[in-house]
Automatic annotation (TrEMBL), chain A:
It comes from Paracoccus siganidrum. This is Amino acid ABC transporter permease. It holds the Pfam family BPD_transp_1. Residues 17-202 form the ABC transmembrane type-1 domain. The lineage of its organism: Bacteria, Pseudomonadati, Pseudomonadota, Alphaproteobacteria, Rhodobacterales. Gene3D superfamilies: MetI-like (1.10.3720.10).
Automatic annotation (TrEMBL), chain B:
Belongs to the ABC transporter superfamily. GO terms for molecular function: ABC-type amino acid transporter activity; ATP binding; ATP hydrolysis activity. Gene3D superfamilies: P-loop containing nucleotide triphosphate hydrolases. It comes from Paracoccus siganidrum. This is Amino acid ABC transporter ATP-binding protein. The keyword Glycoprotein does not apply. Keywords: ATP-binding, Nucleotide-binding, Transport. Residues 7-248 form the ABC transporter domain. It comes from the Bacteria.
Amino acid sequence: MEWQILEQYGPMLLRGFGLTIMCWLLGTVFSMALGLLIALAQRHGPTPLRWLLQAYIEVIRGTPFLVQLFVLYYGGPLVGLRLDAVPAGLLGLTIYGSPYFAEIFRSGFRAVPIGQIEAARAIGMPEHVIIRRVLLPVALVSALPALVNFSIILTKETVILSIITVPELMYQVQRMSTETFRYLEANLVLALFFWLLVETISRFGRKLETRITHYLIERP
Amino acid sequence: MVQASSVEIRGVNKFYGPFQALKDIDMSIAPGKVTCLIGPSGSGKSTLLRCINFLEEYDSGEVRIDGQLIGYEAPGRKMSARKLRAMRRSIGMVFQQFNLWPHMTAIQNVTEGLVRVRGMKKPEAEARAAEALNKVGLGDKMGNHPSRLSGGQQQRVAIARAIAMEPRLMLFDEPTSALDPELVGEVLTVMKTLAAEGMTMVVVTHEMGFAAHVADQVAFMEKGELVGMDIPDRILHQPEDPRIQGFLRSYHERNSF
Ligand SMILES: Nc1ncnc2c1ncn2[C@@H]1O[C@H](COP(=O)(O)OP(=O)(O)OP(=O)(O)O)[C@@H](O)[C@H]1O
Ligand SMILES: [Mg+2]
């Protein structure tokens, strides 16, 4: 192996990694937010909206991210949606991730004992306050591991953004590979960076979990 | 003495699909009186209790709190959510499973409604909450989360959460049924104090001792019907209806040794 090659390509790879992190972070935040809105709308919205959202969930979950991204980026301009690669990638990630997050929130909501909601209703608490003060915090405890898990899965979906020329890590790795034929080195760098990212996220996730659930651990 | 509400229940029916859970229930509860609901499992006690604050929607008939219909503007026309919430503010409820909010400490459980529903400032709410917790004997556990409290303590926090809102009517759904026997007393003691202060209370219970000594009237339900309602002595010691006799016989068999 020839690692000297990294002197030349290192900065590029690092920039790519930076963009990967940004795309992952924003993509996760946006798709989680959209997923939460979908789950709430499915819980509180009118029936037709619920059907519509269920159809959305089925369609998005039933198709590969690659295809969705292609349709969005190359098909979008046909209907007047002309986006640069990075915004298109972020929008794609948001759309792709949202139904999974919606399902995670939905099962989190189901895990909230109905009595805790009724206790809030019984003192006359408005529904939107109940959502914010009782439903979400209690649901988060059971949903957190699945939220972290899917966020980790999303890190790996970011490589698909290279297809629509987002210059993230995969894109740079491929460029280095084709320019130098150092496939092995390039892909080892890719693996190392991803391992680093995933490890950081799961550590952070575990920290968050102990923080959020500290009060549930019974200490008689 | 608290300002206490009256409850009037007239011809209330409740269906779950084809199944009729409440059959033409009539009941009057005067201000400051304690009414115990007893009866076998599945007889509709919880359903009736929950109709009083409209957690359960009755299908026909009327439930009036201080003369005001709850849940409906007029027969068949639902009350607005805002109006219903306003009425619920003066009705406290205590559940079998406590239903404290697990992510909040004891005092946070109590202040929550004061701040979010009554619109109190936090320091004022905390003072009021501390007072309520002291009243139920939990002044030293205010910072504990529910998971760090015994069942009896959790139920007393739940009572504090309700009374801090200054209700004029309190509903209890088997408040001691989930408790270990040695913890039942501490909860009943708090309830007796409330009763002595003149709170209107409706209590679903299997604690016949409480019904006998604290209740002003005892109502016996079976299969969705109100079989009988009278002063405790006449229901618990000299019931005429064979259904009540049968229920009490099996109760005594279970509780003797
Ligand atoms: N949501 C529901 N859907 C269908 N049936 C219900 C529902 N809630 C209650 N029921 C039925 O209504 C009847 C009365 O129930 P309820 O909970 O009021 O009984 P209960 O007297 O409180 O019994 P327990 O002592 O076991 O608490 C029961 O037969 C029950 O199965
Ligand atoms: Mg019941």
